[in-house]
TrEMBL record, chains A, B:
<keyword id="KW-0285">Flavoprotein</keyword>
<keyword id="KW-0809">Transit peptide</keyword>
<dbReference type="InterPro" id="IPR006094">
    <property type="entry name" value="Oxid_FAD_bind_N"/>
</dbReference>
<keyword id="KW-0274">FAD</keyword>
<dbReference type="InterPro" id="IPR004113">
    <property type="entry name" value="FAD-bd_oxidored_4_C"/>
</dbReference>
<dbReference type="GO" id="GO:1903457">
    <property type="term" value="P:lactate catabolic process"/>
</dbReference>
<dbReference type="GO" id="GO:0008720">
    <property type="term" value="F:D-lactate dehydrogenase (NAD+) activity"/>
</dbReference>
<dbReference type="InterPro" id="IPR016164">
    <property type="entry name" value="FAD-linked_Oxase-like_C"/>
</dbReference>
<protein>
    <recommendedName>
        <fullName>D-lactate dehydrogenase (cytochrome)</fullName>
        <ecNumber>1.1.2.4</ecNumber>
    </recommendedName>
</protein>
<dbReference type="InterPro" id="IPR016169">
    <property type="entry name" value="FAD-bd_PCMH_sub2"/>
</dbReference>
<keyword id="KW-0560">Oxidoreductase</keyword>
<dbReference type="InterPro" id="IPR036318">
    <property type="entry name" value="FAD-bd_PCMH-like_sf"/>
</dbReference>
<dbReference type="GO" id="GO:0004458">
    <property type="term" value="F:D-lactate dehydrogenase (cytochrome) activity"/>
</dbReference>
<dbReference type="Pfam" id="PF01565">
    <property type="entry name" value="FAD_binding_4"/>
</dbReference>
<dbReference type="Pfam" id="PF02913">
    <property type="entry name" value="FAD-oxidase_C"/>
</dbReference>
<dbReference type="InterPro" id="IPR016166">
    <property type="entry name" value="FAD-bd_PCMH"/>
</dbReference>
<dbReference type="GO" id="GO:0071949">
    <property type="term" value="F:FAD binding"/>
</dbReference>
């Protein structure tokens, strides 16, 4: 498309940002889906920002023309946070990928929002440091902060909320805030940094992050423990905590899932509720002592060690059944799409919630791997069905809905680590009560024109602003297709 | 005072709250000062709240009559957060002191805001649990959350921000929010809980807290290490972190202070920059290994062990020089008043900041103990002078001002753990830039009438609302004495 053909807000973007604005169908389609939401919403333009100035220029045009802007990091979100409003702007931050020099004394590094997790850790490794938050996907750090991501190591290191020291954020009105600092603590003023962590681009656009780093542990070891029942596995994980033992990772997989992985990988792991724990230590003696405590805690609750490993290779092999769940699912059900349930409950409600999940699956005639970051009380159901199998998707919706409602009812949360996006909004009232209204007041205060990732988190898609859809918006859906509460199947 | 004599807003409080409202001079004077601010501002009434309903009733009267309300926990604040507006309402929450049954599986307990730290830990001890945040003073949990308190154990467990699972907060408009949950993590909605932690009663009144608990460590040991210079002590504390060793406490005291304590307690500790570390372990072997690492890290940077202890009694004795700083100061300077400086800097700026503090003291001809929660980069200067010694207080002001400005200039914060109150407001613009304006927008959104602890944190005392001072306000100062930026000396 020639520049002189581009008019309206797309023309204004092109004027300010030149070739960093793409209207090419391929680029737009590449920003139309995330990894978990069965919707295809094609943006009207993609801005490939290279600097904070590009972000501000994009926001200025979007503000002037009232065009929604949705930040895009790596597109690995699961609940729709990164999906653009159809026909509007996808603000791709992947080019803002500078990694500063790590500070080995202050244990921090400053990165652009587009830096990805695995690339960052490759850069940090020679310094003996790492960034611990591990959501599984190779997500961008900006996206991870925006959704308050966490994962397998959160039991030991916390999630993004605990590991972002400072943020720079561009606001809807063009101000840029620096929030937090490299100091390890502060009681100075309101915690605005925390307000932006988890706000999914609805309050501002993250343009830089200062992250807390940790030393690579001198030595690690892993153990796999099979239990007689789910309750035993859960109780053992609580006992561990009571003993003051904090593993690097503490993961749970149910019996049916171990069986599925056995089948897929020709393994012979006991088909029982299973825990995996990785511990870090100073030396072999320290690891030995921790593994002995782990075995002891397990045996108190009917758990038996079925494998133990110390070398990286052996640990990798030991964890195969945990890490192989998704692959086994894909292999067992070729052509199926997946949808991952994600709830987090108080540890005292964890065993009961596992039971509820299993009952719900049985009641609706479904099978799905149940895995959990069990030390945090965080459970995932890996649902799957053929994209066209409307009946099964309806039953999946029932199960995931009932599970989220149960999590809230027992004092937990509808989303442990995947964010709210489009699909968890329906639970916010029951989870937060009147606080949802205050969240909406915060949104209205910081984005009165409602053009920052509108409709997400606390937003109501029925209240989306009208904006001019350009003549050049030839491909994809339009804003009229915005039906997030009745998602089309893929 | 007879009930029928009470009119105006005090009468309205009495109508709603009966005997829980005190207009007695003694009660009012007891709420006129905190532990660190040389100001006496006598409230016009004290409400002794016993329930969330009492808090709501107080807020309703205050809202109707536009009378400022300042929550009061234990009165241990150091920067003026708990000082009432002269003639207005002090809302004493110390009677809301219920402690719920600890949840030994979820590691939580729910308490009223008036529960004090030491009482809570006495209740938790038989359960093998404790609440780790230790600001030194026997503060109330509500006050600790309101100022985002931390302290000696923060290096290991974090501060209030990391250890409050959920809050109930009464808003200016009478809504009551439940924020957070007993689930260990969530990515559901905006982090309003974090916004209220550290807001010092300016955004709402905390009526209940759910706290994260930790298992009492099976065994602990402590070591005292003397260094050739400050830099060695600081670098050793960084080396420890690099080795993956996280002590329960890691404290620093400068050489002059060790000398002062020697003198006061007839001790013979080496008069050198000194670190104390307490480590927790599974058993004796684990403690031995950690102590060996500690000694090794110290010796790399010119540090020598001067004492080691394992029993509670011996550890108490070992820590005496650290814990005796304040007493030694009081003994050496009878009749002096104190003022504690509190800054926190990135660890990479810590040694330099200690040097700056020492130079400032020398330049202004002052002596003051310098102590630090060194693992967090948090430094305190314990300034002292006779209350009437205007010249010395002026020099103290210069030193503390220069130190706070330095901390902000090197990327740190003007207040590590004491909050903003009245006296740190002057640094918020340089520390937060435009974010200060957004903080003020948050304040205006949640408290448009500006009656919740007005003038504190982000507030401007010049913009204090006028309110009717009752005829019964016979004792104490009036709102006209509100001159926080030019504080009177005690």
């Amino acid at each position: 498309m020639e520049d002189d053909q581009v008019t309206g807000w797309q023309g204004a973007l092109r004027t300010g940002l030149g070739e960093r604005v793409s209207l090419v169908p391929g680029d737009r389609s590449a920003h139309a889906r995330d990894e978990g939401t069965p919707l295809t919403w094609v943006p009207g333009a993609v801005v490939y920002a290279r600097s904070e100035g590009d972000v501000l220029e994009t926001l200025a045009v979007a503000r002037d023309w009232r065009v929604p802007v949705t930040p895009w990091g790596a597109g690995t979100s699961l609940e729709g946070a990164a999906l653009p409003v159809p026909g509007a702007i996808s603000l791709d931050l992947s080019g803002m990928d500078a990694v500063g020099e790590p500070d080995p004394v202050g244990f921090t590094v400053t990165v652009g929002p587009g830096v990805r997790r695995l690339a960052l850790n490759r850069r940090l490794r020679p310094h003996g440091l790492f960034f611990p938050v591990d959501p599984g996907a190779d997500a961008s750090l900006g996206g991870m902060a925006a959704t308050n991501a966490s994962g397998t190591t959160t039991v030991r290191y916390g999630g993004m909320r605990e590991n972002v020291a400072a943020l720079r954020v561009a606001l809807a009105d063009g101000r840029v805030l620096t929030l937090g600092s490299a100091a390890r603590k502060s009681s100075s003023g309101y915690a605005l940094k925390q307000l932006f962590i988890g706000s999914e681009g609805t309050l501002g656009v993250i343009t830089s992050l200062t992250l807390r780093l940790h030393p690579l542990p001198p030595a690690t070891a892993s153990v796999q423990l099979a239990f007689g029942d789910v309750e035993g596995a859960v109780t053992a994980s609580v006992t561990l905590r009571g003993l003051g033992l904090t593993p690097e990772r503490l993961e749970f997989v149910d019996a049916a899932t171990v069986a599925a992985v056995n089948c897929h990988r020709a393994r012979h792991d006991p088909e029982a509720p299973t825990l995996w724990a990785e511990v870090a230590g100073r030396d072999r003696a320290d690891l030995d002592a921790q593994l002995a405590l782990l075995r002891e805690a397990a045996s108190l609750h009917g758990g038996t060690p079925v494998g133990e490993a110390r070398t990286p290779e052996a640990q990798s092999e030991l964890w195969a059944a945990r890490h192989g769940v998704y692959d086994a699912l894909r292999a067992a059900w070729p052509g199926h799409a997946t949808r991952i349930g994600d709830v987090c409950v108080p540890l005292s409600a964890l065993a009961g919630t596992v039971a509820v999940a299993q009952e719900l699956l049985e009641e609706h005639g479904l099978t799905a791997p149940l895995v959990g970051h069990i030390g945090d009380g965080n459970l995932h159901l890996l649902m799957h069905a053929h994209p066209d199998d409307v009946d099964t998707w309806t039953r999946i919706d029932h199960v995931l809905h009932a599970l989220a409602a149960h999590a809230v009812a027992v004092g937990g949360t509808c989303t442990g680590e995947h964010g709210v996006g489009l699909r968890k909004r329906t639970y916010l009232r029951s989870e937060h009560g009147d606080a949802l209204d205050v969240m909406r007041e915060v949104k209205a205060m910081l984005d009165p024109l409602n053009f920052l990732n509108p409709g997400k988190v606390v937003g109501d898609p029925a209240l989306l602003p009208a904006f001019p859809v350009s003549d050049h918006d030839a491909v994809g859906d339009t804003a009229a297709d915005w039906r997030p509460d009745v998602p089309a199947r893929p």
